[in-house]
Amino acid sequence: MPMKSKKLMKLGRSRALAPTLDWLETRKAELERVSGKGDLLDISFAEWCKTVELSTMEGLKPVSLFPWQEAFADLILGENPLTRRTITLLSSRQTGKTSILLLIASYLAQTRRQFNIVVIHRTTADAHLLCRRLKLFLGKVSLKTDSLSLLEFKDSGSQIHFRSANPNKADGSEQVGRGLPQISLAIFDEAAHSSNLKDCVTVLAPALTWSQMGLMVFIGTASSRQSYFYETLTNAAKSEENLQNLLSGIRAGDKEPFQVLDKGVGGVGVITHWQAIERFKSEPNFLGRIQSEFDLSDAQIATEYQLDFENSVDQAVFDFGLVMAAQSIEIEPYSDSSEIIYFGIDAAAQGKDFAVCIAIRQRSEQGKVFYEVCDMYRKRAGVSEQHLNAISQRIEKFRPIAATVERNNMGELWLENLVGLGLHCDIQGFSTTATSKPVLVGRLQVALERGVLKIPKGSPIIDELLAYRRLENGRMEAGGNAHDDTVIALSLALHAAQFNR
Q1: For residue 317, what are the β-bridge partners?
Q2: DSSP letter assigned to residue 349
Q3: CA atoms within a 13 Å half-sphere pointing along the CA-CB vector of 409
Q4: Is the separation of the CB atoms in 51 and 32 below 8 Å?
Q5: Cα dihedral 364, 368, 372, 374 in deg (nearest 10)
Q6: Hey, is 498 helix, strand or coil?
Q7: For the chain, first and last CA: distance in Å?
Q8: Domain spans of the chain?
Q9: pLDDT at site 38
């Protein structure tokens, strides 16, 4: 369907765009509605965007699309729209990448009958925030159903669903497609940092089968080179070398900051660098200002603004494929005291860190020893006494052969308290230093590489493993706003088991 001139579908006596057209009739006479029954509305997406007012520092202003946003919208709404494809949008922060997709979703839902869309984020809270943002584009459009999970349009009968992928839950990916018999457009925000993106795609694929459009759009900044998001980009570029050369050229200013990578079949890649925004490009020290205002690290600037997957100051410690392979839905619950169990305990004071105790079960199969996570205590709220009580009860229940406690900071006090309880368990402490931490985490790396570790599907451990980074100075820590408590606790459990000694 053409974006600029083709008349949109006939909406009969309804006025699907009445709120925006009321404003348009007084401010944009050249676009006013033709009067009479059964009118046709002749308005393009770009023209419709001008009827949407948003709050700015200068008051309410009509939406004004960036050139790259117009070009991107043309891929979906233009004279030759993409159909039955995936689009991977790699973009710097602050370029309006999420806004353009929400605008497209709002426009399609109002101008096509029975048009179903699903918008997906990693968490329910974030998905609801996207719903609130989209509702800003709707004005007073009549809605049959109006919740943060579902917008159903009264006049067109279209629906926009807002779902969470919930990568921390075993059935998180299944939730994105539940109850959706048919979908024309699926939008995945922050897809580059979603560990179960590929699973979500598999779940949604059947719902897109019967749609003429059938588009999936992944949105994100640069992330791990082991992610499915990165894989789709390299496929669109035909090779990893092509993609990296293109990104290097864009950063250096030798290549255009907006690129469309289209092999003609399969996935389409779209790259938008901050230099595609003229006012950013003309600012003498844009990146310096952004880094100072938002207190961003060099690594964050490199990945989130410079689209640098190769960033030397922030490298993934654990291989994406190995982490995904370690996920299992076949782990049996704890059954009896004859099982060989080991504990790893990462202490935490009151604050943002989690107190974590992970139990791993040792098993042998055809002469091969492997380990599986069979229980986990992970809690942030509460005081040390509460955490220690919960952990001591687990020690009494599971009767582990050995437990290792990270003794730095509060850990020393935890170690003394647990040992003082006289529990039937060999409880030892472990001090993490610049020298000992790589060795400790190295056990976990080896276990993943050998394929002898099983982690419950959807566990928070998966996300923390994928977010764990090695910095340029050699330090290892959680990337971005992620945590690493389960990574350390799992490594300590393997240490207690004397794995790889």
Answers
A1: none
A2: -
A3: 8
A4: no
A5: 0
A6: coil
A7: 64
A8: 66-71+78-311, 320-496
A9: 28
* Amino acid, single-letter form, for residue 328: S
Place of tokens 């610049």: 434
Give Cβ neighbours of residue 243 (< 8 Å, ≥ 6 apart).
233, 234, 237, 261, 269
What's the CATH architecture for 320-496?
A: 2-Layer Sandwich (3.30)
Residue 404: CB atoms within 10 A of its CB come to 25
Residue 483 pLDDT grade (very low, low, confident, very high; cuts 50, 70, 90): confident
- For the chain, give percent helix, strand, coil, nearest 5: 40, 20, 40
> Which letter, b or e, does each residue of 379-388 get, where b requires 16 or more Cβ atoms within 10 Å of its Cβ?
eeeeebeebb
Element (H, E) at 86: strand 86-91
**334, 328 Cβ separation under 8 angstroms:** no
CATH class of the domain at 66-71+78-311: alpha beta
Q: Which two tokens stand for residue 300?
A: 């964050």
**137, 111 contact by CB (below 8 A):** no
Predicted structure pTM score = 0.64
Could you tell me which of 111, 107, 101, 112 has the C-alpha nearest to residue 45?
Answer: 107
Place of tokens 């009151």: 350
CA atoms within 13 A on the CB side of 179: 8
CA 440 centroid distance within chain:
28
The one-letter amino acid at 484: D
> Which pair of tokens denotes residue 315?
């490298």
Task: Report the pLDDT value the prediction gives residue 24, as an integer from 0 to 100.
Answer: 45
Amino acid at 172: G
